[in-house]
Write a structure and sequence with these properties.
Elements (H helix, E strand, L loop, with lengths): L2 H12 L12 H6 L10 E4 L7 H7 L3 E6 L2 H10 L5 E5 L2 E6 L2 E5 L7 H4 L4 E5 L10 H11 L5 E9 L6 H4 L4 H7 L3 E13 L10 E12 L5
Parallel strand pairs: 1-2, 1-6, 2-5, 6-7
Antiparallel strand pairs: 3-4, 4-5, 7-9, 8-9
Bound molecules: S-adenosylmethionine.
């Protein structure tokens, strides 16, 4: 990840330009997460977590949650807006903020080690991979592989622009970019697709475009490294 991208994210949070933040728990998370059948108390990693309310929902299901987020503005807002008083401590290049089952490491995802994260049983990715420029997504996935035990599932939500796909069949299937990024190490199960017609709030005069909301369950299948 380039320092320029990091500076951009830090600035977006400082200037409160955070339209990506959802004001409610993602309905596809609450509907499809239970299908992973993970044990109570198992530990969920939330990369590039922002101040997502989805972390609260995961903790309410009995999970230990550990997010990583670059911006201290986001981390502070997460705990303040949810009326939680975290304990803060330095951990190498990160600051760990923790309250009960919820923890966020504030710092750069690309600097994380397995020792920083501890045991991880699954991953929740909403607008993490897809927030990154295409050129560094391979690095994001390679880093995920380093951090995860091989069998841990990844629950991935994406929003794909149907018009960027070559055909309707492709628009409703596994995204070719995800296939290229994950297929070497993961079995990819496209669990759900939902089509919505949406107008761009910045260009309401433009015709609505079809977006595909997809739920992927990825199961790691390479040997433990
Ligand atoms: C599109 S937002 C999504 C946030 C969250 N997943 C959600 O659903 O609301 C992407 C987040 O990644 C954070 N981020 C970007 N690059 C990062 C990095 N290298 N390490 C940690 N966090 C990063 C940004 O600050 C931002 O909060």
């Amino acid at each position: 990840m380039s320092d320029r991208d990091n500076q951009l994210w830090l600035r977006l949070w400082r200037e409160r330009r955070t339209a990506f933040h959802q004001q409610a728990v993602n309905p596809l998370l609450s509907r499809f997460w239970p299908s992973l059948e993970l044990a109570q108390g198992s530990r969920v990693f939330v990369p590039l977590c922002g101040k997502s309310l989805d972390m609260l929902w995961l903790a309410k299901q009995g999970h230990e949650v550990i997010g990583v987020e670059l911006s201290p503005v986001a981390v502070k807002a997460f705990f303040r807006e949810n009326h939680l008083q975290p304990v803060k401590r330095r951990q190498g290049p990160f600051t760990l903020w923790q309250h009960g089952r919820l923890a966020i490491l504030c710092g750069d995802y690309f600097a994380l080690t397995r020792a920083d994260l501890g045991q991880i049983d699954s991953v929740y990715d909403r607008a993490a991979l897809t927030a990154l420029p295409q050129a560094i997504r391979t690095g994001y996935v390679a880093q995920l592989r380093l951090l995860l035990p091989s069998a841990s599932p990844v629950f991935l939500l994406t929003i794909e622009d149907a018009e960027e796909h070559a055909s309707l069949q492709q628009a409703l299937g596994v995204d070719p970019e995800l296939q290229a990024l994950y297929a070497a190490d993961f079995d990819i199960d496209l669990a759900h697709v939902e089509s919505l017609f949406e107008t761009d709030p910045h260009a309401p005069e433009q015709p609505a475009r079809r977006a595909e909301y997809k739920v992927y369950r990825l199961s790691g299948r390479t040997q433990e490294h």
